């Protein structure tokens, strides 16, 4: 059991750092992105990475609370993606 934790901790830390770096790069795309669809995709990437960061932190800290946070963030991200996609394609959210 101690061997698994010794192997998993550096892997989880590397995954956390990689997810944070990808989130920063996507944030740059949101700011500079030349078109609105580019910015929407970058926001979706940020939402997905925040969910991944919460799930990885739940595994790293062995606290189930962050798994619940990741689930709620995933649901909110899905709804916001659908809403923004509808706004971009049709110009209106509610008809």
User: What's the rounded overall pLDDT mean?
Assistant: 88
> Main β-sheet: number of strands, strand sense, barrel status?
none
What are the secondary-structure elements, in order, as H or E? Answer: HHH
Helix content: over 70%
- What would you call the shape? elongated
Distance between the termini: 56 Å
Q: Would you identify the regions where 5 or more consecutive residues have pLDDT less than 50?
A: none
Query: How much of the sequence is in beta strands?
Result: under 5%
Q: How many strand elements?
A: 0
Spatial extent as radius of gyration:
16 Å
Count of helices? 3
User: What class, by secondary structure content?
Assistant: mainly alpha
Task: Summarize the structure in words.
With 95 residues, the chain is mainly alpha-helical. 87% of the residues lie in helices and 0% in strands. The protein is built from three helices and no strands. The N and C termini lie far apart (56 Å). The model has no long low-confidence stretch (mean pLDDT 88).
Give the key terms:
95 residues; single chain; elongated; mainly alpha; 3 helices
Topology (elements, then pairings):
Elements: H1 2-32, H2 36-61, H3 65-90
Helix pairs in contact: 1-2, 2-3
Question: Nutshell version of this structure?
Answer:
The chain has 95 residues and is an all-alpha fold.
